[in-house]
Amino acid sequence: MSHVGVPRGTARKRRSVALLATGVLTIPVLAGCTSDGEDPTSVAVPQDIAPASRDRVADGSTLNWAIDAVPSTLNAFQADADGATTRITGALLPSLFPMDAKGEPRLNPDYLESAKVIEREPKQVVLYKLNQQAVWSDGREIGAPDFVAQWRALSGKDSAFWTARNAGYERIEKIERGKDDLQVWVTFSKPYADWRSLFSPLYPKEVTGSPGTFNDGARTTLRNTAGPFRLRSVNKPKGTVVLDRNPRWWGDEARLDSLVFRAVEPGRRTDALAEGTVDVADIDPATANSIALAARYRGGKGGPPAHGPGAGITPAAALRSWALAHGSDEEAAETARAAREETREAVAVYAAEQKSLSGFAVRKSLEPSYTQLALNGESGPLSDDRVRRAIARTLDRQELADAVLKPLGLPAKPPGSHLALAGQPGYKDGSGALGERDTKEAQALLADAGWTPGGALRSTRDTKAGSEAEKKDEGEKPAAGEKAADEDKDEKAGKAGKKDEKAEDTEKDDKASREEGEYTVGDDKPGSRSSGGSGVTAQDKQPGGVAGAYAPVGTAAPAPAAVKSRLGKDGKPLSLRFVLPSGPGSQSLRTVGEKIVAMLDSIGISTQVTKVADDSYFKDHIASGDYDLALYSWPATAYPATDGRPIFAKPEPATDGSLLVAQNYTRVGSDHIDQLFDRAVAELDADASRDLLKQADARIWAAAGSIPLYQRPQLVAVDKKLANIGAFGFAAPRYQDIGFTARQAAGPPANGKK
């Protein structure tokens, strides 16, 4: 499923001019701040990978795996590294502590015999003992020189190395060789709880030993690797990255001969699967539905099971499937049989596609990431934490999660933490620090912040109509009795005061934006009677007209009920810019966005929805702060103390006047949250560290800059003959175990065919 997301560790040094409303956050409730154990309701959704023992997986064959694009770099520590970089390097380079199915780091015996903290005082010391068989593809053993070179490159002390993340490496004081290069002693200047996150992936010293090789040498090639596969070629024009089985691999031999990562845009995944270009691809719900329909009609309605991929698809079955896919029901599908001559060509094409797709299964789980509503606290109404909390308490998170996950048959429990997901150690629902959904309480918070119904029609400036306003302009002050009488008349008539200029401007702007294709939700126009804002026509002004048919000059037309219900303050409406991606793979985000708009509209908050191209959505809007509301995703991590801090840290001013936001694109933070992260990352007792993180999470909830909505679905189309691959969930793939349960035809690994 395609979602706009952002990989951790990217753009750590991006600067953006921004303002942040500082001060102590009000914490209404600090639920989840105790040292309780894991949430008993926290259950991870299992991975779906068609597991099979290695003896059931055939030796040989080529697997084609879809990626969005050939990565710009194979150096995972550079700013433009992406998901494809991670996927490819996972098969090529050492990962010392990969995540298991519960999202917890586990020692990898292919590279380590052991690794543990052997001293805590006066300084933390970790001793790594490397697997004696572990070697790079050139035959050199993996050892201390590789650790030293990577530390020096990532420590942040040498600006010649273009690094995107240095967390943890800057805490290392020294690295020493033990009795040989297979023993590595790492001494820390400050305690570091997440030491297992370091040296994964581990690059050879040939890459990390100098700025030139680090910055440019590993962008398009890796001559020295140490995984079950080695790199054969990177071909950007063809959109392929080809890996071959590593003959020097000392662990379980890879079952595949070759692994080809093939660039296929998300919108073309269905065609690529049907054409046999790829065997594995992340897909969206529409493609998953096509595969499900193919499976449903594989043997024809009521017919016998097929004996091969799509073998039993009859023209009638294909026609029924085609009609269903285009929005018809069973009865309509049967009726459509009469028109088969007119649709023969379309049905034939669809039948061929169905036949091909019937050879695939949809593996599904939940990704180790969550989608959030981000509220930009840089300036404007959302700089007030009362407004942010009001919006958060208006959302029905369960409804939003149901809309995305229930149609896919996946659990739809909204996440209760920003720093862990259900099933991970230490997960605790901390959303009680914000409070349950309560629209009345939300309205009270907004009123406390000064945003009231009809507030957009009132201004702090004098808005009285007629002669009294003229008197004031002339410096005359009306008598108290006259003023009270006038006010009494105004209240009875409901028409006193000039029409608010700002409300009128808003109306004009709204009209202009509609004409330009932008849509402002909730700002309904007044009736057509008003032609100039006054409601007075030439006929009304004729002498002898019906008494009371026209109002005194300057009297405003009554506001429609829809406008009266809009929230405003000092003549300004509470209207927020909601930025959403427009690409075909982002339909789920737009569906969620529409529901959020309706929820906010129900309490009087107007929303201007702007849809932008996917490729500019994050860089030009989220990272730069050009939004009020937005939806995007963060991946989960086994190291929240390290990886969570830059996401939720309080932005700091830079020497050039800009604001260093790291990855905190909501610009909402506090000193207290930073202090809790700092204490957690330095706490070597795992339980104590998790308790500090729970406290930090409670305060992040209370700040209401980020509202987790649902864990992202993971849908993967996989050839039914493949084993040990699919929706991995938290766990890292074991590339050496992936393969076909039946031998595939031999052929060039990069030709797109099996």
TrEMBL record:
<dbReference type="InterPro" id="IPR039424">
    <property type="entry name" value="SBP_5"/>
</dbReference>
<dbReference type="InterPro" id="IPR000914">
    <property type="entry name" value="SBP_5_dom"/>
</dbReference>
<feature type="region of interest" description="Disordered">
    <location>
        <begin position="415"/>
        <end position="434"/>
    </location>
</feature>
<feature type="region of interest" description="Disordered">
    <location>
        <begin position="447"/>
        <end position="549"/>
    </location>
</feature>
<feature type="domain" description="Solute-binding protein family 5">
    <location>
        <begin position="350"/>
        <end position="457"/>
    </location>
</feature>
<protein>
    <submittedName>
        <fullName>ABC transporter family substrate-binding protein</fullName>
    </submittedName>
</protein>
<dbReference type="Pfam" id="PF00496">
    <property type="entry name" value="SBP_bac_5"/>
</dbReference>
<feature type="signal peptide">
    <location>
        <begin position="1"/>
        <end position="31"/>
    </location>
</feature>
<feature type="compositionally biased region" description="Basic and acidic residues">
    <location>
        <begin position="508"/>
        <end position="527"/>
    </location>
</feature>
<feature type="compositionally biased region" description="Basic and acidic residues">
    <location>
        <begin position="459"/>
        <end position="502"/>
    </location>
</feature>
<keyword id="KW-0732">Signal</keyword>
<feature type="domain" description="Solute-binding protein family 5">
    <location>
        <begin position="120"/>
        <end position="294"/>
    </location>
</feature>
